[in-house]
Design brief:
Length: 278
């Protein structure tokens, strides 16, 4: 029996309680029905339908081109599969920057059409009014601090954040503001481990690290990175837990070879003629 049928559906309240219990939170991305089913069956606590799908699924060089329609479609596919984990959907670039009202409308689509249980918003102080409005409207919000990929052009590339004391303090201040606005958790990306630890201690809500050290309340990775399926730019903090890309290449090469040599399908994979045909 798969794990998804052994435990009740996780909620934001349960995720928050895991921090108080000292239980580490495991989070992974997923973007389609098939892999989301595998992730959920494996016992992951949260599934993030990340705008990183722009790179690993759609072939863009950043998350910037990803649209709200893209996110709704992929979120809908994931939520059809996931039975236990909490599903969080990214608010893509351009879906909330214009106004709080725009952000609320976008989040409603992700919840209503995509069937997400929560949304994730990048940024600190500038998005606090939006986080407050969303939570007041009954939409759970996960924050995202440190390296925020939607701001990569402003940040000057994919750089470690929080190296200076001023930057570190600003990140912690932003975390406290997001918590006060009602966020149920925060993703902390690409920052020194001591900053990740200080950030985690500074708030009562869970901090999920990605390149932010072991002291965070949990960890998240892009599924395609940790499985070796996406073999372009791989951040230093990624650990490959498998090399499915290489295995898939070997299998496809074997298929191509057997087709060209006339080996596949062969008798064992062909339908025998019926009595009438004989």
């Amino acid at each position: 029996m798969s794990r998804q049928h052994e435990s009740p559906r996780l909620t934001t309240l349960r995720i928050r309680a895991m921090k108080a219990e000292g239980r580490k939170i495991a989070m992974l991305t997923a973007y389609d029905y098939t892999l989301a089913s595998l992730v959920d069956d494996a016992g992951v606590d949260m599934v993030l339908v990340g705008d990183s799908l722009g790179m690993v699924m759609l072939g863009y060089d950043s998350t910037i081109p990803v649209t709200l329609d893209d996110m709704v479609m992929h979120t809908r596919a994931v939520t059809r599969a996931v039975k236990r984990a909490l599903v969080v959907a990214d608010m893509p670039f351009g879906s909330y920057q214009a106004s709080v009202e725009q952000g609320v409308r976008s989040a409603v689509r992700l919840m209503q059409e995509g069937r997400a249980q929560a949304v994730k918003v990048e940024g600190g102080a500038p998005v606090v009014p939006l986080v407050a409005a969303l939570t007041s409207a009954g939409i759970p919000v996960q924050g995202h601090l440190g390296l925020t990929p939607q701001s990569v052009n402003q940040l000057g590339g994919y750089r470690v954040q929080g190296r200076s004391d001023d930057q570190a303090r600003a990140i912690i201040d932003d975390a406290k503001a997001l918590e006060a606005a009602g966020a149920f958790s925060i993703v902390a990306e690409c920052m020194p481990s001591d900053v990740g630890a200080a950030l985690t201690r500074s708030v009562a809500i869970p901090v999920i690290g990605i390149g932010a050290g072991v002291d965070c309340d949990g960890q998240v990775l892009v599924l395609h990175d940790m499985l070796g399926l996406y073999r372009h730019r791989t951040p230093r903090f990624v650990k490959r837990f498998g090399d499915l890309g290489a295995e898939a290449t070997r299998a496809i090469e074997a298929y191509v070879s057997e087709v060209r040599d006339g080996v596949f399908p062969g008798l064992e994979h062909s339908y025998a003629p019926t009595a009438k045909e004989e």
